[in-house]
Amino acid sequence: MEKKKARKIRIRFIPILIVLGLSICLFFGGKTILALPIQNIIVLGNNYLTDQEIIELAEIEEYPSFILSFFGKLEKKIKENPWVKKVKIHRKLWGIIEIQVEEAMPLFEKSEEKKIVLSNRKEISSAELKVPVSGLLNYIPSNKYENFITQMEKINSNIRYLISEITYLPNEQDKDRFLLYMSDGNYVYLTLTKFSNINYYEQVLEQLDGKRGILYLDSGNHFQIMEDISVE
After folding, report:
1. Which of 15, 103, 197, 204 is most buried when burial is the number of CB atoms within 10 A of its CB?
2. Going by DSSP bridges, is the β-strand pair 222-225/187-191 parallel, antiparallel, or unpaired?
3. Which of 16-20, 40-44, 113-117, 183-187 shows the lowest mean pLDDT across its residues?
4. Which H helix or E strand runs over 152?
């Protein structure tokens, strides 16, 4: 019987070493890339919260991994703050992230409760706000309150800052009537259906020649000078 010759298997070490080397390079290279930290954080759109406060809300003040920072999670953390109405985070080149914030507006203070009401319907302590807002002096019934907030949102910010105090002051003819005390000494009557008329306040002042009194914007759009004033 003819003996079978044993076949020699040649192991090619060089290709194996190349594959192994590439695998190691890819592993450590990928690990290094994933570990690269955020290089810069840009915050836009904020007025009431500082850049640092927003960065701390997102818990990225230690500049963690640029790749492994999941923006949906970061946005959720930032939105937990009552000031934040909307937030969107974008990843830019060279390790930069951009945080675009839309803040809620402070509308008025519930004077008795020392609470600031924001346009997103959230409330904060009066001590948290460093700029003046108008004070709501009394209670508004719940069936009027939501509409009141909506109407306050429609007032231009430059006019809203001129309102010192607000009183809900209904009478027999109008259950939606309010009296506004202006910082310049004038009084303004408004009703909820005509609340946005206060946006024309500065234009009306130009026609009053410096006189002070009561401006009726709830009905009739007339002005009563200070000598005849009687606030009811």
Report:
1. 103
2. unpaired
3. 16-20
4. helix 142-153
Cα(38)–Cα(55) distance, integer angstroms: 12
Residue pair 156/168 in contact by the 8 Å Cβ criterion: no
Query: pTM of the full predicted structure?
Result: 0.77
- For residue 195, the SS3 value is helix
| Spatial distance between the Cα atoms of 158 and 156, rounded to a whole number of angstroms | 6
Question: What does the CA dihedral 167, 171, 175, 177 come to, rounded to 10 degrees?
Answer: -40
Q: What is the mean pLDDT of residues 182-195?
A: 91
Q: Which two tokens stand for residue 67?
A: 């790749």
Long-range contacts of 83-92 (CB under 8 A, 24+ apart): 83/48, 83/49, 83/118, 83/124, 84/49, 84/57, 85/119, 85/120, 89/58, 91/66, 92/42
Is residue 7 over pLDDT 70? no
Q: Is the dihedral of CA 51, 56, 62, 63 positive or negative?
A: negative
